[in-house]
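Subject: for your reference before the review

Hello V.,

The reviewers asked for a structural picture of the protein, and I figured it would be easier to keep everything in one thread rather than splitting it across files. Below is the amino acid sequence we used in the manuscript, unchanged from the supplementary table.
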Amino acid sequence: MHLKYTGYCRSYLKCIQCQHPVYRLKMMDTTLIQKYNVPGPRYTSYPSVPYWDEAGFSISQWIPGLRQSFKESNLQEGISLYIHLPFCESLCTFCACNKRITRQHSVEEPYIEALLKEWDMYRHIFREKPVIREIHLGGGTPTFFSPTHLKKLLDGILSGCTVHPEREFSFEGHPNNTEREHLQTLYNTGFRRVSFGVQDYNEKVQKAIHRIQPFENVKKVTETALETGYESVSHDLVFGLPFQTLEDVRKNIALTLELKPGRIAFYSYAHVPWVKGVGQRGFDEHDLPPGELKLEFYTTAKALLEEAGYIEIGMDHFSLPSDRLYQAVRSKKIHRNFMGYTSSATQVMIGLGVSAISDSWYAFAQNEKTVEAYYEKINNGGLAIMKGHILTAEDLKIRRHILNLMCFLETGWMPEDRFPGIMERLKALEDDRLVTITENKIIVTPKGRSFLRNICMAFDLRLIAKAPSTRLFSMTV
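And here is what came back from the structure prediction:
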């Protein structure tokens, strides 16, 4: 490049020598980055999992509360299902998901049998026919499973259920092993959205994270999905990976725009090598870009995506106006849970499979984290739950504020919501021009969007009351 970043606005200029668009990014105060680049939750729930009151939770409390929540919401909005399929043929060293590495595909059938047994237990708890609004297949690698086994799983899940007319069924596909038959089988079962994990196109970065997949593979599977009839294709990109450069980010966005997926997830890499079972030890922390550079990655990508017609949604996500995610923002129906952002809000989400988390709005419950422990509980006729949390009245108020901020970048602010210390923390954020505070509303500023997790942390009474003595979360920038 022959010009350097000089300011921040949505306009851009072109390099006089190579005509490459150069966005004018307002110089972010490095002291602001240093101040706010701290470990923090991603807020797919409140309280975040490390702050659950496990001692105050029991399955005997979980079941009646879930049953009541199901009765309150099933017929009107339906329920969501998250199904965790943990198997992968190889280990990606950037991944913090719960997975089991194996090339033995004989694991598929017994795992599906266990999932269907677990679902039958929940069907028994509900006592009424479930209305299925959302299904998301996550992993692991869902397309590790054969199309035949995926069909068996989904036929078993949907048997005896009603499918909501505004359903959204989606799955995560690996560009290297998602075949046309996978796409067609899931399409025939009602799936209309697929997200492909791209991460980065630079071969050096791919080798570091052990995820080799050329652009041609992503292009082929994206085009095949659209030919099959999928209405929404998403690409997942990650910034802050080892050896990643600003030029890599520009190239990643340029190649992505050639395929123009309906939505793009642009995630900040979460470096959490201290978590048991995470394979993030294939590179050194010194190989990772610093916070200041990561923020430049983000602002550069954002400018390029907005120039191409994408709209920023909440945190980490961009959508074309034609995609349901953007439409959900416009209609105030967007929701955030353990599946991430979804285009419809359901009060009940059931998590099936190893490590999956269920949410009744009033309580959370997480399954056993190893395949062996999961099988043992399921095959003995009990739910596979290992821990959970019953939300208090205070939790429910804080949860609503954090959800509003993550989805709508603002939240209503009533006198009864002003818990001790929150106003002081918000005033400090306002002084840094990250939020605007009115008599009855907290609004995230454009500058504040880069620090959305930090803004939510101002409300996190459990985190503030008991600051962790060891690293629990990834860095916020």
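For the response letter, the relevant points are probably these. Confidence is low (pLDDT under 50) at residues 1-27. The two ends are 25 Å apart (CA to CA).

Happy to draft the paragraph if you're swamped.

O.
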